[in-house]
Amino acid sequence: MASLLYQTIEQISREKHIEPEVIVAAIEDAMIVAARKYYKTEEDLRAKFNPDSGQVDVFAVRPVVDEVTDPKKEFTLAEAKKFDPNAQVGGEIVIPKPTDVLGRIAAQTAKQVIMQKVREAERDTIYNEYNGRVGELVNCVVKRTEGPDVIVDLGRAEARMPKREQSRLETYNIGDRLRVVIRAVDRSAKGPQVIVSRADPILVQRLFEMEVPEIYDGTVQIRAAAREAGERTKIAVQSRDKDVDPVGACVGMKGMRVQSIIRELRGEKIDIIPYSEDTVTFAQKALSPAKVTRVQIIDPETRHLEIIVEDTQLSLAIGKKGQNVRLASKLIGWNVDIKSEEEKRQEIEAQMSALTAPGTPLSELKGVGPKTVERIETHGITTIEKLADMTPEQLTEIPGIGEKMVEKIQLSVAAYFQSLENPEAETESIEALADVESAEDAAEQAEASAEAVEAADVAAEEIEAPTEAEEIVRHDATQSEAGAGEFHDGAKAADKSGNE
Q1: Which residue, 90, 418, 445, 499, has most beta carbons within 10 Å?
Q2: Crossing angle of helices 370-378 and 403-421, rounded to 10°
Q3: Residue 34: helix, strand or coil by DSSP?
């Protein structure tokens, strides 16, 4: 007949779902730890549990060797025969250790070791059982709350439902029965290892598998699901049988099947969408109930879509706080930009105006003086872009522009376009322009000085050389003076002859 201790071991094994041998091994290990602590020995200790008597015997085991290397752990043949006359080299000598002398402290140590071993065995059992059941739908009862987390009873173990795995519309009271899906199993957690969820999209899929026979037997498949727990869920379904309507099978007669799932989710809205391999068609269906005008793939590599809807459908397509477009993006797995017809028209107009916009005025060109700019504009060239298209021969045809000025203009235009592509290279171009400009300024100053000297010479010549009119006036004046002198001389001669 089994002892009372062994009966207790069997009862614990049934409650904790642990094999009795595991608990027996824990008791034996605990007795070894307690005996080693009491006897303070380094010997190899072993324990043996007797199910009939409930007694745990502890033994010290020493091997028999020819040459002893550790006297505390080994016996010679002569020493071994003192305990066992039949001892031989290579055998072992078992020396009983009394356990009735173990005190309260040793018993407390054994108790702690047993409890620790049992807990570890229980955690290993739970992990091995539930690790392969991730994604499975299970029933549970709310047991208690720990802060924001809800602790539920799965029957054989406790599970934890964190705040992030709870539905926004639901409140949980102790004793409530719930359907949850196993989200993960955490082996290193201090509390319950099993993590369950009421917010995972897999929960909706498992509920549909229970309510819709076509999904359970594989005739209808759920290809994708996106969910915002407590608000709305979108699922994409596809039928493997052309005679079976996937959406109708999920909705059921008068909506009975989907209504049952909605009640389980506390009124959460569910959109059932037919799946399509064509991304454009799938995107149009995913934005339901909004009507999509057109879908354009912007970049297949980054999975970027642009969806155009009518102006009256824009708010419906976006949804409350962007919910509808977010769920559609998750469902199809693409980044979605949604625009109205008016927004798209304005965008196209802006692009067209940018293409037909006037070029950069010549005043932005560095290194070219305002007089040169005025000469070029007089010739009909008003932008830098048009100036860049002109050849040196065409530039020299403009009055007042020579070969040196053409070279200067070309450098300035090249520097402008280079600054658009690489702003750092603009400094080098400006320095080159500065060198050319300084040389041309020196030449212009020398030319201006020569012109000033020439103008001064001309002015001096004009002052020194009388004009033709001045020559005539001067000649007349000379003749008048001569006539007046002859008249005066004649009058003097008459007066003299009269006196005589």
Answers
A1: 418
A2: 100
A3: helix
